[in-house]
Every structure is written in structure tokens, then in C-alpha cells.
UniProtKB/TrEMBL annotation:
The keyword Nucleotide-binding applies. It is an enzyme of class 2 (transferase). Pfam families: HAMP, HATPase_c, HisKA. This is histidine kinase. Keywords: ATP-binding, Kinase, Membrane, Nucleotide-binding, Phosphoprotein, Transferase, Transmembrane, Transmembrane helix, Two-component regulatory system. It comes from Nocardioides aquiterrae. PROSITE patterns: HAMP (PS50885), HIS_KIN (PS50109).
Length: 420
């Protein structure tokens, strides 16, 4: 069944449950009707037995035929050997039932219910005293109407169970198909997205709020997050390739220039020193690129501090002040410098990868320092604030604490959870 479609499995399970329920209900109804009909027959048997016992003489003969005829019952009187000594005209000379040593009243059914019997009887066998020992009084009533009613009930119950099961299965299939139709639509749209389509979202009904709708909304949120991540990765690759291309081109040019003519040992050492500067720049850039994929470790605050201080020394102006204190549930790291700071436009993109102001391009650096700080801070569940000349920018988790710093200084503030 695990290979069957979900709607088929749902309908199959629902149908089996309905079959069990309907069958149990039919058995209960049949049993209750049978019990009621048998009680009616047993009442007739009991009344006829009392009348016959009173009208049976010591020799086993019936003394009052009129009274017995009024009961409408079939009877036989058996001696101790089980032979018929008296009987009603319709009973016959053959025993209706065999006593088999019965010592108390016993009710038995004679004749088959299925297939039909020519002489269906319900009989009560009662021990009585007759000449020569213990005899038996057999009183029987026909159960034709009882059997016919039960057979008719069986047919009606079978039709009802089959009909109800068919209707319930059809309704269950329609409901399952209706419930799973949005999921199938999601699957088709997801296949379209997987084939390379961008900007596509699942069609989620706006006027409903059920499990399938919530699934569609969650998948749309996931698709949006994936698109943002892919777009960020694409920008990162473009920016990284651009930033790496320049130092690699310079390094290649220096090597080619060094190969154009024979040089002295001193000239080679000078060229090697210049090449080492370029290689160290590439190594630093590679390390910074790796830091953009951080894991939250115990040295997060140290790495953040190192990047902020290095950024302040590179792009700011002394003195650089570093302060670390705990405020409530937060550790607050503040780095200030006396540099010119950033304008509003630069503050907006200061944490972007490879973002540098025009006047900073002449200085060393790759524009990854604040991007690394933001990445580390957000990974640790904190917030980065950049403040310059009354302009404030916040990145990461919301922190309900005011800025406390000199408004005339360039300030970078990091809020980290205290347990970090």
C-alpha cells in the first residue's frame, strides 16, 4: 500500500473502517431482532408447555384436547425410552427432538435456517413424570414467520451495507481529491520552479486558513528566502571574482615583467618582496572571504573586536576607543574613532560585501570588514549599529536599548546575548 497514491490509501483506509463499522452495526441489529423474535416464540412455548403439563395424565395421554388445541402448539409426549405415546395431529409419530438424558427444560431449533427447511420449528423439551418413569413433553411452534423476517432483514442489511459503503467511498474519494488538489497544484508549480523559473510563487488561496494553505505560505516563504540567498551568493561571486581579479592581474604582471630581462640578485629580492606583498594581500582577502561563512564559536567577540578596531584604524583617525560592558541581558561592545565617519548613503551599504567609499579605494583593504562583523553578529543572535553624525543604522536582531555615544564620533556598536 505504501506505493499507492495518497488519495487511494485514504479512500481504502476509510472504506475498510466504514465496512467494519457498518458490519458491526448490521450484526448488532440482526442480533437484537433475532433476540426479540425468539423471546416472542419462547413466550408462546412457555404458555403452551404449562397448559400441556396440566392436561397430561399419568399415562402420558392428553386429557383436555380442546384446551391444547386453543394453544395452537404442536406437542409430543415421549416415554422414558423416547418413544412417542401421544402427539398432536400435525406432530407425527416420529420424535421431533431426541431427549438425550435432558433433566431440565431445554429450547432447541429444528430445521435449517439456510437453506430453507420444510418444517422449521422451535421446540421446548421438558422432563415430566409418566407411567414407567420419567418422560418428556415436547412443545413446538413453527418459526416460519421468524425465519422469513430474519432472511428479509439479512437481505436489507446486506443492501444497506453495500450501498452505504459505496456512497461513503465515493464521498471519501471526492473529499480526498478535493483536499489534495492544492498539493498537486503546488507540485506542478514547484516543478516549474525547479526547471529554472524565477520569481514564481505557489498560488495560495487568500480566503482560507487550513493546513494546506499554511503549507503553501511556508513554501512561498522558503522560496523567497532561497531566492534571496541565491541572489546574495550571485552578488558575492561577482564581487569576489572582481576583487580577486585585480590583485591576480597585478601579480601576473609583476611576474611577467620580472621575466623580461636578466636581473641581479638584489633586483630579484626586491621583486620577490613586492610579490610577497601581493600574495599577503590575496591571503588576507581569502581569509576574509572564509570569515563570511562563520560558525558561532567562543571567539566571536574577539573576531568582531579585531575587525572593528582594524577598520577604525584603517579608515578612521586616532584616538580609537574600545569599550566592553554588560547592559541587562546584553554584552555591549563599542568602538569609536575621530575620523570623518560615513554619510547616510555609505551607512546604508557599509555592511555589503566589498563596499568601500570612493576616498577609501586608495587605502588598503577589501571592504569586507564590516560585512564580516555583521555576519558574525547576526549568527550570534545580536545586533550591529553604525552611527555617524546623527545617522543611525541597525542590522540584525532587535535590541530595545538606546544609543549611548558621542554624536560627533564615528561609532560601531555590537550587542551580543550575555551568554555569548
Amino acid at each position: 500500500m505504501s506505493r499507492w497514491p495518497i488519495r487511494v490509501r485514504l479512500v481504502a483506509g476509510f472504506s475498510v473502517a466504514m465496512l467494519v463499522l457498518l458490519t458491526a452495526s448490521a450484526v448488532f441489529v440482526y442480533w437484537r431482532v433475532e433476540y426479540a423474535l425468539d423471546r416472542g416464540l419462547d413466550g408462546d412455548l412457555q404458555r403452551a408447555t404449562v397448559a400441556l403439563e396440566q392436561a397430561t395424565g399419568p399415562d402420558g395421554r392428553i386429557t383436555d384436547e380442546d384446551a391444547i388445541t386453543a394453544t395452537g402448539a404442536i406437542y409430543q409426549v415421549l416415554d422414558s425410552r423416547g418413544e412417542v405415546v401421544a402427539h398432536s395431529p400435525s406432530a407425527g409419530a416420529e420424535p421431533i427432538v431426541e431427549p438425550h438424558g435432558v433433566d431440565h427444560p431445554e429450547t432447541v431449533d429444528v430445521g435449517r435456517f439456510l437453506a430453507f427447511s420444510d418444517r422449521p420449528l422451535r421446540a421446548q423439551l421438558t422432563p415430566i413424570e409418566v407411567a414407567g418413569g420419567t418422560g418428556y413433553l415436547v412443545v413446538a411452534v413453527r418459526r416460519d414467520h421468524r425465519d422469513e423476517a430474519l432472511r428479509e432483514l439479512l437481505v436489507q442489511l446486506a443492501i444497506s451495507v453495500v450501498g452505504s459503503l459505496a456512497v461513503a467511498s465515493a464521498v471519501g474519494y471526492l473529499l480526498a481529491r478535493s483536499a489534495l488538489q492544492p498539493v498537486e497544484a503546488y507540485r506542478r508549480q514547484a516543478a516549474t520552479i525547479a526547471s529554472g523559473a524565477t520569481g514564481v510563487r505557489l498560488d495560495v488561496p487568500a480566503n482560507r486558513d487550513d493546513e494546506v494553505v499554511r503549507l503553501g505560505n511556508t513554501l512561498n516563504d522558503m522560496l523567497a528566502a532561497l531566492e534571496r540567498a541565491l541572489e546574495a551568493e550571485r552578488h558575492f561571486v561577482d564581487d569576489a571574482s572582481h576583487e580577486l581579479r585585480t590583485p591576480l592581474t597585478v601579480l601576473k604582471s609583476r611576474v611577467q615583467a620580472a621575466q623580461r630581462r636578466t636581473r641581479t640578485v638584489e633586483e630579484h629580492e626586491e621583486i620577490l618582496g613586492e610579490l610577497l606583498v601581493d600574495v599577503e594581500r590575496l591571503a588576507r582577502l581569502a581569509e576574509q572571504l572564509l570569515e563570511l561563512r562563520p560558525e558561532v564559536t567562543e571567539d566571536v567577540l574577539d573576531r568582531i573586536t579585531a575587525n572593528l578596531v582594524a577598520n577604525a584604524h584603517l579608515h578612521g583617525r586616532a584616538p580609537v576607543r574600545v569599550d566592553l560592558q554588560r547592559v541587562g541581558d546584553w554584552q555591549v561592545l563599542t568602538v569609536e574613532d575621530n575620523g570623518p565617519g560615513m554619510d547616510a548613503a555609505m551607512l546604508d551599504r557599509a555592511t555589503d560585501r566589498f563596499a568601500r567609499a570612493d576616498d577609501a579605494r586608495a587605502r588598503p583593504g577589501s571592504g569586507l570588514g564590516l560585512a564580516i562583523v555583521r555576519s558574525l553578529t547576526e549568527s550570534a543572535g545580536g545586533q550591529l549599529r553604525l552611527c555617524s553624525h546623527g545617522e543611525h543604522r541597525r542590522f540584525g536582531t532587535h535590541v530595545d536599548l538606546p544609543c549611548r555615544h558621542d554624536p560627533d564620533r564615528m561609532t560601531a556598536t555590537v550587542y551580543l546575548p550575555a551568554e555569548q
